[in-house]
Design brief:
Chain A: One of its GO terms (cellular component) is nitrate reductase complex. Chain A: Keywords: 4Fe-4S, Electron transport, Iron, Iron-sulfur, Metal-binding, Molybdenum, Nitrate assimilation, Oxidoreductase, Periplasm, Signal, Transport. The complex is a heterodimer. By secondary structure, chain A is an alpha/beta fold. Chain A has four domains: 91 residues, ADC-like domains (N-terminal domain of TfIIb); 237 residues, 3-Layer(aba) Sandwich (Rossmann fold), CATH 3.40.50; 225 residues, Dimethylsulfoxide Reductase, domain 2; 92 residues, Barwin-like endoglucanases (Beta Barrel). In chain A, the strands form eight sheets. A seven-stranded mixed β-sheet of chain A has the order 5-4-18-17-16-6-7, with helices on both faces. In chain A, helix 1 packs across helix 8, helix 5 crosses helix 23 and helix 10 runs antiparallel to helix 13. Chain A is globular, with a radius of gyration of 25 Å. By secondary structure, chain B is an alpha+beta fold. Chain B has two helices and four strands; from the N terminus they run βαββαβ. A four-stranded antiparallel β-sheet of chain B has the order 2-3-1-4. The chains are: A alpha/beta, B alpha+beta. At the A-B interface, helix 1 of A face strand 1, strand 3 and strand 4 of B. Bound molecules: iron/sulfur cluster. The site of iron/sulfur cluster has 13 residues of chain A, from helix 3 and helix 8.
Chain lengths: 775, 79
């Protein structure tokens, strides 16, 4: 099972080279090394290079794909892309190598008497439509559901929303971005009343300090991290890694500060305490632009089915907030966070120094958290108290994991509570959607239904009787798959899975639909910095592979909604986008016209009078600011952002005598999420062929475990046996173990807990209690 | 078993000389930029000690102005 050392060395050399190319490009914009690649490509004859965004992460690097004889034969970074300036990471360079995989899904498969039978796509779509219709007739609209993705394109997300909410009239649509970005969305909405970061990647060139909160950017956002490293080398910018585990990001940073899981809430409050008590608060900014508010406490963890929670905001004054912070002195917090008083003061002093520009970056560590919304609020508090926000080099910046978590999940709104503009609970927003969709306003229900975890619980209970998943693999990525795998296997639910490759999710499907891969269709993605990126179809897909958007449209037509989906197969991407951007007209969220997207390697919204808005809410850069002040948080009716009083509350499950370890889960640079694509790319698979469990060397010694020994990781929910990794890729703190989730053969999510943030409904994959046994 | 990558900045007008001297070192693989004065150097050594010796050798190259470490990997024995 393990890779030979020589091929691994070769791969590592390639990574080292890629890192150096990335660093060099940050230092010398326009530097050319691509000669190396082009020389290799030239040997294969003339290539036609076509532009698009990378298929994988939320950084959204621009790629150029070399096409020869209708095949994708090379990938290089797009030097015109402002995101990556010609560079890519290892996943980026090798992305198209999965397309030709031998087990590619090329035709529809329908399960008949327990066996998958190759079926013409038209016939399979007939079956999907008739099953969906029949289920609605028998059990009502809310018995059918769609579960899509932050990897769906904007048009794919849009037609899924229109079918479910506008045509059928159910809010049973959610997406896997619930597992990664929902806390960021809830954080933005509660603090600013408007989603998505105010800054952009150009902040990297201006910041003096980068504070990363529970975020291993060296592996998860490698091209951005290289840009930061370049600033470190060139200008002496500093990187401070604040995390629960030592990673590649920690070792490349100027300082690594480790904290006890869940206590980031307390440390963030302690930083605010220090800022106020040391007189570092930017009083005039806070007076002009902020309100103080408190929410409910002891808000639960969503562990029981049909859990419901609604927060209640109560205005407070500054003195009450200051009083609240007395519980968070560095001395008090140091006792349980395991962060020294000195380190808390060090962090606070960075934020508090008026002459230093600071960007905070975070991703899954803060979002996959039972108090994820609170954590987002707390980091905004720090930036609001110091006025370090919405300016070049100063700002909080929530990074996305998926390539279109922003563009599709958040902007189009493929969550149960969302509409392409606004939320289902708002009558004005429902009326706008009804008008653009040309459906009766009453058809769009005003109440959200199932968020992801609750959606799969409803499948388990038998409440959902039909589910269609697109571009996602929930039976590897959900928490507590030990419950949801048997749930999807039940006869009570008809399961349709649309995908490019077979996965554990397609293994339980009644119908498998063969989806086009990224460059086999045209599409539009939106990356972490609000950049919308379009690409044209580059190659033909094999067999009957078809874009997901078109399969949704075909099903809609078969269900009798043809008049709502009047798009043509050839131009549906463009036609859908033109319809979609009507939702966002205006200076606050205007999307770029298609012709601008086609011309450029991505454009940032709000796109106003031919220009991207790089820093929102700052009158100097954002034409939507109209309150006559320097800053205007126009997402809120009074134009002010909210400083939230949010306490520390413990995790729902903590290590104890029986289960003495924290389990943390995450990703590795070689693999994209559940590995369904990257494990089919030989160079990436060979470099990281299987998952593993990282242990602290002292814990390993206590249990007599050596590198490579098989270790059983057990929680109250399930178990997973995997090889031990000690002092290799990452180093957990004592009393903590870490496992990546990319490996469908070693399912760590059988072990995780499906607790979630009661506000955002995002599950916490980073904390539960386990025991270990040497096997 | 360290593998490292560096950006090697040559002294003014000495890029070719730097490339020539780096090329003669067995543990180094080079990737010179085509339009800037910088050379990527990937080093591959068997032990920490050999790595240290190589680093001192590189630091002493006459045509080298600055050597900046970008990444360092120690190849693990298993994943
Ligand atoms: S950093 Fe992300 S977007 Fe860029 S090449 Fe790598 S995977 Fe693709």
């Amino acid at each position: 099972m393990y890779t030979s050392l020589s091929s691994r060395r070769l791969f590592i050399k390639q990574m080292a080279k890629a890192a150096a190319i990335t660093a060099a490009a940050g230092m010398f914009p326009g530097i050319i090394f691509a000669g190396e690649q082009e020389r290799a490509a030239a040997a294969q004859g003339d290539l036609e290079w076509k532009k698009g965004p990378c298929r994988f992460c939320g950084v959204g690097c621009g790629i150029l794909v070399g096409i020869k004889d209708g095949k994708a034969v090379a990938v290089k970074g797009d030097p015109r892309s402002k995101v990556n300036k010609g560079l890519l990471c290892v996943k980026g360079y090798h992305q198209t190598m999965c397309i030709q995989s031998k087990d590619r899904l090329t035709h529809a498969l329908v399960k008949k008497n327990g066996t998958y039978v190759k079926t013409p796509l038209d016939e399979a779509l007939d079956l999907v439509a008739s099953k969906m219709k029949e289920t609605i007739e028998k059990h009502g609209k809310d018995s059918v559901a769609m579960y899509t993705s932050g990897q769906s394109t904007i048009p794919e997300g849009y037609v899924a929303s229109k079918l479910m909410k506008g045509a059928i009239g159910t809010n049973n649509l959610d997406c896997n971005a619930r597992l990664c970005m929902a806390s960021a969305v809830a954080g933005f909405l509660t603090t600013f009343g408007a989603d998505e970061p105010m800054g952009c990647y150009e902040d990297i060139e201006h910041a003096d300090y980068f504070i990363t909160w529970g975020n291993n950017m060296a592996e998860m956002h490698p091209v951005l991290f290289s840009r930061m490293l370049e600033q470190k080398q060139r200008r002496g910018a500093k990187i401070v890694d604040f995390a629960t585990r030592t990673t590649r990001s920690s070792t490349a940073s100027d300082r690594s500060i480790l904290f006890e899981p869940q206590t980031d809430l307390a440390v963030a409050n302690a930083i605010c305490y220090e800022i106020i008590e040391n007189g570092w608060m930017n009083k005039s900014f806070v007076e002009k632009h902020c309100n103080f508010t408190k929410g409910l406490t002891n808000i639960g963890y969503g562990l029981e089915d049909k859990f419901a929670f609604k927060d209640k905001a109560t205005p407070i004054d500054f003195e009450a907030y200051r009083e609240f912070l007395q519980d968070y002195t560095p001395e008090k917090v140091a006792k349980y966070s395991k962060v020294s008083v000195q380190d808390i003061k060090y962090l606070a002093a960075i934020y508090g120094d008026p002459n230093k520009k600071v960007v905070s970056y975070w991703c899954m560590g803060m979002n996959q958290h039972t108090r994820g919304t609170w954590m987002n609020n707390l980091v905004y508090n720090i930036h609001l108290l110091t006025g370090k926000i919405s300016q070049p080099g100063n700002g909080p910046f929530s990074l996305t994991g998926q390539p279109s978590a922003c563009g599709t999940a958040r902007e189009v709104g493929t969550f149960t509570h969302k509409l392409p503009k606004g939320v289902v609970t708002n009558e004005k927003h429902r009326r706008l959607a009804a008008k653009i969709w040309k459906v009766p306003y009453e058809r769009i229900p005003a109440k959200p239904t199932y968020h992801t975890t609750e959606m799969f619980r409803a499948v388990d209970r038998g409440d959902i009787k039909f589910i269609w998943t697109q571009v996602t693999n929930p039976l590897v990525s959900l928490p507590k798959t030990s419950r949801y795998r048997p749930a999807l296997e039940k006869e009570s639910c008809f399961v349709v899975v649309s995908d490019v490759f077979p996965t554990p999710t397609s293994d339980v499907a009644d119908v498998i639909l063969p989806a086009s891969w990224h460059i086999e269709k045209s599409g539009i993605y939106g990356n972490s910095e609000r950049r919308t990126q379009h690409w044209d179809q580059m190659i033909e897909g094999p067999g009957e592979t078809t874009p997901d958007a078109w399969m949704t449209i075909e099903v809609a037509k078969r269900m009798g909604f043809g008049d709502l989906f009047p798009y043509s197969r050839e131009n549906h991407v463009e036609e859908i986008y033109e319809e979609y951007i009507q939702f966002h007209e205006g200076k606050k969220h205007g999307m770029a016209p298609l012709k601008a997207l086609k011309r450029k390697s991505g454009v940032i919204w709000p796109y106003v009078e031919g220009k991207s808005t790089l820093w929102r809410f700052n009158a100097e850069y954002d034409p939507a600011c109209d309150n006559g002040k320097a800053f205007h948080f126009y997402g809120k009716p009074d134009g002010k952002a909210v400083i939230w009083q949010r306490p520390f509350e413990p995790a729902p499950e903590k290590p104890d005598a029986e289960y003495p370890f924290w389990l943390n889960t995450g990703r590795v640079v070689e693999h994209w999420h559940t590995g369904s694509m990257t494990r089919r790319i030989p160079v990436l698979h060979q470099a990281m062929p299987n998952a593993y469990i990282e242990l602290h060397p002292d814990d390993a010694m206590d249990y007599g475990i050596s590198n490579g020994d098989m270790v059983k990781v057990i929680s109250k929910r399930g178990a997973c046996t995997m090889p031990a990794s000690i002092n290799e890729r990452g180093l957990p703190t004592k009393g903590q173990v870490f496992a990546p989730f990319f490996d469908e053969e070693l399912m760590i999510n059988d072990v995780t807990l499906d607790a979630f943030c009661p506000i955002s409904k995002e599950p916490d994959f980073k904390k539960c209690a386990v025991k270990i046994e040497k096997v | 078993m360290p593998i490292k990558s560096y950006l090697a900045h040559p002294c003014e007008g000495k890029k070719d000389a730097l490339i020539a001297s780096l090329s003669s070192i067995a543990q180094c693989e080079l990737l010179p930029a085509e339009n800037e004065d910088v050379v990527i150097v990937i080093t591959d050594t068997s032990t920490e000690e050999e790595d240290q010796q190589l680093k001192s050798r590189l630091d002493n190259l006459e045509a080298l102005k600055l050597l900046v470490l970008v990444s360092g990997f120690d190849t693990p024995k298993n994943p």
